[in-house]
Specification:
heterodimer, A: mainly alpha, flat, B: alpha/beta, elongated
């Protein structure tokens, strides 16, 4: 799998998918979308776990654990805050019949 | 070698992220989309524990627990008004984590036969991750400081800033080449530090009103960083997730800039051309007409059509609930009331919708700018609460103003304009608003919540 061309293919296709899936978003949703995308790149946590799990120096372990903490904050916090925002949008629709 | 079942799990996670982004772009599916994304992330991060023979598992789990607590508490506690800076902070720590991961990977590579036999392309991707991750980290912290008003929201420029930035960029490229040719730990560390400096220099000249665009840009940067990190580590889910965020984030940044009538280049470097100095010094002491809540209540009580222009100041004062009550009372008296929502009202595009949704304002009363801009001519009273820049005619009339070209709400076309303001202080963009001195304009000074309460009882008493 280390063939660079395979990786390049995945990269290029992902670029098109990334642009395609959000091209019709309304400005109302810009903020939650940015926040949600922000949470998704928190998956760097996986990378942080990998490098920390394979390190054999103390400095490496410390730095790795810092990276794990930071990445977890990004990922967990990101998804929770996005959900909080979107909860209000859904809550509002439930109010509609009464209004 | 990663086992096949784990590769499949990673693929499933990548699909989840695509579905998440698609879900997030439509109001109906947004919440589920976000949940799907979270499921994907959890699947990927659990799979790695079983797929690889990891050491320090306990320590890693403890670190994850710590991060989870910090993240959840931060996300739960934050006021909705402060949400933009929280997103900036989350983005920053993600970028920082990616830079640290790349540094550790470099450390491992250098330890093995001084990096001999490592593909040059891997090293280039490592260098990229270190620099851009650090830029994102430092840049996000500066945007956080600006939004939290820990520092001035005005563009910070000093002579030689463009040269310093350009020089830093050049040095980073040179160091990256050095790292590829002769991998060494110190080069990586210096690259990281240089990235921090570049991140600060990149965001300093950006004016307060443009900060949201920069957050979105840095978000895209972090995405690309994660993608490069995925390549270095040979992990597909990181590559796909990072690229998705990088690509969609770049598009989102362009959409946001378009909603504000700005180009990205203008946002980042406009201040360097000296465009934002307008209105910097002159504190005007021209006369304005101010009134008390009773006068304004009469204006509102006998109006047929009223439009409310809510701004960030409304939310900061937590006056949105009282405002909704006022609108309800006016509605009972037979007045037609709508809210005009500027795309960038608040601190980020769509931010005001979130804030008003929190106050349970009915959705059908919220009108987007393009739908309501034609109605101002037939409107008796416009009530501007805690907003300023989004109704500032300078955006149309004054070339060179920092907000020039931004589409605005045509509040100036209404018969009467009422500004509810704390003081004569200019808005977030830091420029004076001519509309305040218009003969049709009445000012109602005071804390928005307090004044709104007085206004409400005065209208009830009519």
């Amino acid at each position: 799998m280390s063939e660079p061309i395979v990786w390049l293919t995945i990269f290029v296709l992902s670029v098109f998918v990334g642009v395609e899936v959000i091209s019709k978003v309304s400005s109302t949703l810009h903020t939650p979308l940015m926040s949600g995308a922000n949470a998704i790149h928190g998956v760097i946590l996986l990378g942080a776990i990998l490098v920390t799990g394979f390190t054999d120096s103390t400095v490496g372990l410390v730095v790795g654990l810092v990276a794990v903490v930071l990445a977890t904050i990004n990922m967990v916090g990101g998804f929770v805050v996005t959900d909080r925002m979107l909860q209000m949008f859904t809550g509002r629709r439930r109010q509609e019949p009464r209004a | 070698m990663t086992p096949t079942w784990a590769q499949v799990a990673y693929l499933a996670a990548a699909v989840c992220f695509i579905l998440a982004l698609r879900g997030l772009s439509s109001p109906r599916t947004a919440r589920n989309g976000n949940l799907i994304g979270a499921v994907g992330a959890v699947v990927a991060c659990v799979a790695v524990f079983f797929a690889e023979d990891l050491r320090h598992v306990i320590a890693i789990l403890v670190a994850i627990a710590v991060g989870t607590v910090v993240g959840v508490v931060g996300a739960r506690r934050v006021q909705m008004t402060q949400m933009p800076q929280l997103v900036a902070l989350f983005n920053g720590v993600g970028g920082g984590a990616a830079a640290l991961v790349a540094l550790l990977e470099l450390h491992a590579v250098v330890a093995v036969a001084a990096g001999a036999g490592v593909a040059k392309f891997d090293l280039a991707a490592t260098a990229f991750t270190i620099i851009v991750g650090s830029v994102s980290f430092a840049g996000s912290l500066v945007t956080f400081a600006k939004l939290q008003e820990l520092m001035t929201t005005r563009p910070v420029i000093f002579p030689g800033l463009p040269i310093a930035f350009g020089g830093g960029l050049l040095a980073a490229v040179v160091l990256a080449v050095v790292l590829v040719v002769q991998p060494a730990m110190w080069v990586g560390v210096v690259l990281g530090l240089l990235g921090l400096v570049l991140g600060v220099l990149l965001v300093l000249p950006v004016g307060g009103a443009d900060v949201p665009i920069v957050i979105s840009l840095l978000n895209a940067f972090t995405g690309l960083t994660v993608a490069a990190g995925g390549y270095v580590l040979g992990n597909t889910v990181l590559l796909v997730a990072g690229t998705l965020v990088g690509a969609s984030g770049t598009l989102l940044t362009k959409l946001m800039a378009a909603a504000m009538g700005r180009s990205l280049a203008n946002t980042l470097f406009g201040a360097l051309r000296g465009g934002s100095t307008l209105g910097a010094g002159e504190v005007s002491d021209r006369p304005v007409r101010s009134a008390n809540p009773q006068d304004v209540a009469i204006l509102l009580g006998y109006a047929h059509r009223v439009i409310i222009v809510p701004g960030y100041g409304l939310a900061v004062a937590q006056a949105q609930h009282t405002l909704r009550e006022l609108v309800d009372v006016l509605g009972e008296k037979g007045t037609t009331v709508n809210y005009a929502i500027h795309p960038v009202a608040g601190r980020m595009p769509g931010h005001m919708n979130v804030l008003l949704a929190e106050a349970r304002v009915p959705y059908e009363q919220l009108k987007e700018m393009d739908d309501i801009n034609g109605d101002f001519k037939q409107t008796d009273v416009v009530l501007v609460v805690g907003a300023n820049d989004v109704v500032n005619p300078a955006a149309k009339t004054t070339p060179g103003a920092p907000i020039y070209g931004m589409p605005i709400l045509n509040a100036n076309e209404a018969h009467q304009i009422i500004f509810m303001k704390r003081s004569m202080r200019p808005g977030f963009a830091g420029i004076e608003n001519e509309l305040l001195f218009d003969p049709k304009t009445t000012l109602l000074f005071g804390d928005a919540k307090d004044t709104m309460g007085k206004l409400l009882s005065a209208v009830k008493a009519l």
